[in-house]
C-alpha cells in the first residue's frame, strides 16, 4: 500500500504523466504520431540514445558530480565503431560493441581519476575533457566520415529492427536502465553513491570508499556514453567527427527534469530516463502540433526551469511539514 | 573464559599523541588508557582537544606523533573505514547523517543485510532497525529520510548506528547533549550492557551528574594535554573542575554591576514552525541577559531570527522602539544590532579572507571614500582594533584561518564592536577559547554592558550564564520556560527549566 | 610548411603561390570532393593548396579563417560562403591585403569577391529537382523540403525559385513544409521522421543538400514509407548508392563537386597571375574542363546539373 | 598594546608568487614563442584580429569572473549574446535607429539577467541547473524569433566601425571599450566594498550573510550585469560578423569559462583576479591565432584548451600535495612528551 502511494506521488510518476499527456495530446491532433507503425517505432526509438546517456549521467549526478564530456565521448566511440567496421568488416558485431563501450569506460576513467584524486570539481574537469575528447575525434577523423556503406548490414539493421514491435535499441535502453536501477537500488555500493552525493564530508567521516565509488560512477557514465555511440552509429548510419556535439546539455537537462537533484543525493535513473524520453518526445511533438521547430529549445528550457522550481517548492513544503510534525511530536505544556 | 592477561590488555592506549592544524595545536599530548569492561569519562573544557583525540582514534585525523595502540596492537588509521574494521565505533559530536537516505540505510550503510541474490534486504534491514530502536526505547520510522529529524532524534540514530557495529570500543562524544532524561537513562542502560560484555566505552560529556553516575574512570584534559586519570570513586566534582580549568573558577566572571536602562530589544510572540514558539522577551541597555538551555533547545535559532539571518512565521522584533524588517541582517546592522554567531568558522569569520578584511567586514561601506575601498584604509581601521582587543596575529594580511580560536573570536568581536552597536548578541562567545582569553572576553562584555550596551548572551556553560547574566531566560524545545533574576538563578532551577523530567 | 611571407607580393610567381580553400565546414563529403578537385588542379598548376574550415557552417566561424588568410597574405582564397553579407567585411580586408577571392558553391554579394564559380544556375537546379520529384510522385500530391540550415544562401535561393515554379507550373503539387536539418546527419534524420509523422499524406521529400538527402533516404529506406514516399534532391553518388540500389531513391541530381573545386582553383590561379580580373567576357583555360568565360557579375558557370539513377550511378565514385 | 604589521611578506613575494602571475608568465612565454616561430604572427594584423576575436569573450568573462568568485556560474551567457544579437537585428529591421536598437538589446540582456538572478538568488536554486535551463530558453527564443532569416543589412559604417583601427595603430577602436570595461570591473571587484563582499560570499556565503551582506541582492546585481554585458557583446558580435542570427556565439560560454578558470579564478569561489582573467582570455586568443596560422585546425586548438584547462586546476593541487608531503610523515611510534599520571 505504502509503496503504491509513494510511487503515485513520486517524481518519476509525475514526469511519466506529463509524457503520457504529451503523447496523447499530439496523437489526438495527429493520429500517426502514435498509431502508425513508424510513429510507434520512433516514439520508442528516438529517445533511446538520450535515455542511455541520461542513465549514465544520473549515476554521476547522484554523487554530486557532473559529466559534461558525454557528447564528446559519444562522438569518439561512434567514430571508433565505424572505423573498426570499415577496417575489418568481418569483425563480430559483439566485439565492436565491446570495444566501443570499453573505450567509453576508459575516457570516463580519465575523468574519474582527475576528479577523485586531484579533487578538482567535475564541472571543470569534464569541461576540459569535453574539448579535449572532441579535439581527439576531430583530429582522428579529420574531414573523413563513416557512411552506411562502411558498416555491415547486420549492424545497421540493429538500428531499425524490431522484436515483437519494440525496436532493438529501445530494448537495449530498457536493459541498461533496469541494470542501473537495480544496482543503485539494491547494491551496497549503489546506496553509497547516494550517501556520497548527500553529504561528501560525512561520507569521508563515515569511512566510505569515496574515491572508488566516484571512479565507478564516471566509468559507468563513460561506458554508457560509449554504448550510446554504438547506438548512434547503428541508428544514423553516418558518423562524422561532429557526432553528439552539444548533447551534454540536453542530457543534463533530462536528468534535472527527471528529478535527479543537481547537487546529488537523490533521484533515480528511472526518473532521468523518463526525463530524457519526455524532452526528446516534446521535441518531436512540437512540429507535429504546428509549433515551428525553432521554438523547441525554448520549450525545453522552460521545462527544465519548471522542473527545478517545482522541486524547490515541493522540498520547501516537505520541510515545513516535517517541522510541523516535530511540533506535534513534542507537544509542550506551554510555558507558564 | 578469557585469561587474566588478555583481560588486562587495554582496549585503547594513547600516549602523548599530538595533532596540530596548521598553527593551531589542538592536541598537545593526548593520553588515555581504556580498560575492557569499563566506562571511561573524558572531560575538559571546550577546545581542550577531546574531539580531536576521538578523531585520531577514529581515523579521521592522523596523529603527528605519540603512541596509539588498540587492543595492545600499534594502530595508525588512515581512514575511518580502517578504524571501523578494527572495532572502533564512534558517535561524533556533530551528527553525520545522510539526509537524503532513509534512517535505516543510515544505520547500516556499507553493511546492509543481503538476501540470497546479494541484494539489499530492506525487510531485514527494517526489522534490525526496529530492534535497535527498541533497545534504545525510541520510536523513529526507519523509512523516513534522515533530513528533518530533530537534533535529539539525529543523536539517537547516531547512537543506534554505533551500537549496531558491535564494536570492541565505543566512543561517545557528547551524546547526551540534546537528549531528554528518559532517553539518557536508556542510553546509559545500553552503555552498561556493553561494559558488562567486556567492551570499552569512552564517554565525553560536560554534565558531571552523568559522568559521575555512569563512569568508573575519569580522565581530565586541558589545553590539548592530559591532566589526570582517576577512578571516579576517588575524586570529586570540585576536584575535576579545578583540574579542568587549572585555577579557581570564580575569577572567570568579573561581573561589573550596572543599572539597566531603556528597553533596546523587544521581542514579541516570535514563532517558527518546528523551531520556536511564542518567544517574547526584552533586553535593556546596560544589561546582560543570559539565554540558557540544552544544546538544540533553539536558542541560536531565536538569535538568528531576531538578527534576520533566518525568517520567522509570526511575531515582531523592535529595536529602540522601531519595528525591524524581518529576514534582513543589513537592516539589523543599521538598527544597531550585532550578532557574534555560535560557529566562528562558518558564520563568524571568512577564514579565507585576511584578518584586516574580516575586522572591517561590516563597516566596509563606511570606511570607503568616493565608493573606493583601499587595503590601506582597511589596515588602518583593523590596526586600531587589534590594538584595543590585543589580537595576536603575525600580520594583518594573514588569513583569519591561521589564527588560534581565541584570537579568531576576538576578531569577530572586533568586527562587530567596530560598528558601534546598541545591542550585542553573543552566541557561545567563549566556546573553544582558552581560560585566559575567556576571562578577557568576559571582562570585555561586562565592561561594554557597564557602558550601556545591551547584551544578549547565549551559552551552554551554566557557570558562564550564572556568572555573567543579570537575568537568565531558559529555553526548552523552542519555548522560554523560565525567567530568573540573577539572585534567583541557581544551577538547579535553570537545569530544571531546561530539561523535562530530568530533575525530579 | 610553405616558404616565407610576402606571398602576396610575388603573386605572379609559380611555386610560392599559396591558395587557401575554405569550405562551409569540414567533415562534409561534398566539400571533401570539391577540395580534392581543387587539389588536383593545384597539382597541375604548381600551387600550394591548404584547406581550412570551421566545424559548423556558420559565418562567424568562417571569419577567423578569412582573417588568418589575410594575415598570411595568401595569394587567393577560395570560399563557399555561409552568408552572403556577413563575411563581406572580412573578405574586403583580405582583398585589401592583396588576396584574390573566389567564391564557389555558395556566393556572397558580388562586391565582396572577384569571381563566383557557379555549379549550375539556380533556375536550373530548382527546376531539375522539381522535374525529378514530379516524375516520381506522378505529378500530384504533398511534398516537403528538407534543407540545410535556415540561412544557407544557395538552398534558400533554390527553395524560393522552387516555390515560384511550383505555383506556376505544378498546380497539383502542394509544398506542405520546409524543414531544416542543419546539414547534420542526426538532425536531418530526425527531421525526416518528424516530416513523415506530421504529414501522413506526404508523397515526396526534396532535399537540396547532400547531407539531408542521404539522411532522408536512410530514414525512409528503413521505414514503412519505403517505396511510398519518394526522396530526391542533390546528393553524391557514394552516399546515395545504397538507396538507389535498394529502390528507396529513383533518381537524384548533382553536378560534380570535384569539377567545381577544380574549376575554382583554376579561376583562382587565373586571377592571381592576372589572366583575368573578374570582368565579364574574359576567358581562361581550366585544364581538362576546357575554356570558360566570365559572365555577368563575375560569375563562371560550371554547367547543368547531372541526374544520377540506377543506370549510371555505377560509373561514379565520389 | 600590540602593533601588528600590515603585511606578512614583502611586496615582491605577494605580487610574484600568485596564480595570476603564473598565468601571465605563461602568456608571455606563449606569445614570445609564437612571435619567434609562427609565420605571420609578428605581422601588423595579428594584434588587430586578436583583439577583435577576444572582445566578446573578454567582455562576457568580466561579469562571469565576479559570478564565479561568488561560487555560482552563468552558463546562459552565450545564449544571451545570441538573443540580444537577434533582437538588435530585428529592431534594426523594424526601422528602429541603431542606437535605440543597441539600448533595446541591452535592456533585453539585463532582463535575462533578472530571470537568472531571481531564480538563483531569491529562489535559492542551483545556478548550474538554472542557467542550463535558461541557456536552452534564451537560445530557443533567439532561434525562434528570427526563424529562417538572418539580418545582414546593417549600415556599412556601423559594421566597419566595429572593426576599424584607431588611426595608425593596430588597435581596433573596440579596444577603448575593452580597456574601460576591464578597468570598471577591476575596480568594482578589487577596490570597493561591493567587491569585497563578493569575495566574502564566495569564501563563505553564510559568514557574509551573518555580516549583514545583502547576499541575494548582490547575486542579482551580478547576474543582471552579466546579462547586460553579454548583450553588449551580442551587439558587437552582430556588427563584427555583420549578421544577426539565432545561432550566433553558440558555445561561447565554454570558452568564457575556460578562460576564467585559466586565469586563476577558483570554481569553488572566493579567489581570482581580473588581471588573471585578462591573461587567460589572451592566452586562448594567442594560442588560437598562432595555431590557426600554423594551419592547425580547430581540433587541436580544442585539445590544447581542454588540456590546459584541466592542468590549470590540477597543477595547484599537485603542488599543494607535494608541499604537504615535504615535512616527512611522523614516525608512528614517537615518544610521548609528558608522562601520564595514571593513579
Ligand atoms: N580541523 C581543525 N582545524 C583547525 N583547528 C581545529 C580543527 N579541529 C579542531 N580545531 C581546534 O582544536 C582545538 C580542540 O578542539 P576539539 O574539538 O578537540 O575540542 P573539544 O575538547 O572537543 O571541545 P568541545 O567540548 O567544545 O567539543 C580547538 O581550539 C579547535 O578550534
Ligand atoms: N529537525 C532538524 N533538522 C535540522 N536541523 C535541526 C533540526 N532540529 C534542530 N536543528 C538544528 O539544530 C540546531 C539546534 O538549535 P540551536 O542551535 O538553536 O540550539 P541551541 O540551544 O542554540 O544549541 P547550541 O548550544 O548547540 O547552540 C539548530 O541549528 C537547528 O537548526
Ligand atoms: Mg568536542
Ligand atoms: Mg546555539
The small molecules bound here are: adenosine-5'-triphosphate, magnesium ion
- The number of helical runs of chain C is 9
In this structure, how is the largest beta sheet of chain C organized? 6 strands, parallel
Q: What percent of residues of chain B adopt helix (DSSP H or I)?
A: 25-40%
> What oligomerization state is this entry in?
heterotetramer
Question: Helix and strand string of chain C, N-terminal first?
Answer: EHEHEHEEHEHEHEHEHEHEEEE
Structure write-up:
The complex is a heterotetramer of chains A (336), B (504), C (318) and D (343). In chain A, strand 1 (162-163) and strand 2 (166-167) form a beta hairpin. Chain A has 336 residues and is mainly α. In chain A, helix 11 (188-198) packs across helix 12. Chain A has one domain (44-295). Chain A has helices at residues 2-9, 11-29, 32-35, 37-45, 48-62, 70-87, 93-118, 122-141, 153-158, 168-186, 188-198, 200-206, 210-236, 247-257, 269-288, 296-329; strands at 162-163, 166-167. With 504 residues, chain B is of the alpha/beta class. Chain B contains 19 helices and 20 strands. In chain B, strand 1 (12-21) and strand 2 form a beta hairpin. The two termini of chain B are 42 Å apart. Chain D is mostly helical and 343 residues long. Chain D has one domain: ABC transporter involved in vitamin B12 uptake, BtuC. Chain D is 70% helix and 0% strand. Chain D starts with 10 loop residues before the first helix and ends in an 18-residue tail after the last helix. The structure holds adenosine-5'-triphosphate (2 copies) and magnesium ion (2 copies). One adenosine-5'-triphosphate binds next to strand 2 and helix 2 of chain B.
Ordered list of secondary-structure elements with their pairings:
The complex is a heterotetramer of chains A (336), B (504), C (318) and D (343).
Chain A: H1 2-9, H2 11-29, H3 32-35, H4 37-45, H5 48-62, H6 70-87, H7 93-118, H8 122-141, H9 153-158, E1 162-163, E2 166-167, H10 168-186, H11 188-198, H12 200-206, H13 210-236, H14 247-257, H15 269-288, H16 296-329
Antiparallel strand pairs in A: 1-2
Chain C: E1 18-22, H1 29-45, E2 48-51, H2 59-72, E3 76-79, H3 88-96, E4 100-104, E5 115-118, H4 122-137, E6 141-147, H5 153-169, E7 173-180, H6 185-198, E8 202-207, H7 210-221, E9 230-233, H8 237-245, E10 251-254, H9 257-272, E11 283-285, E12 291-293, E13 299-301, E14 306-309
Chain D: H1 11-16, H2 19-37, H3 44-69, H4 77-93, H5 98-122, H6 127-146, H7 156-161, H8 174-190, H9 193-203, H10 205-210, H11 215-241, H12 252-262, H13 274-293, H14 298-325
Helix pairs in contact in D: 2-13, 3-8, 3-9, 3-11, 3-12, 3-13, 4-5, 4-6, 4-11, 5-6, 5-11, 8-9, 12-13, 12-14, 13-14
The structure holds adenosine-5'-triphosphate (ATP) (2 copies) and magnesium ion (2 copies).
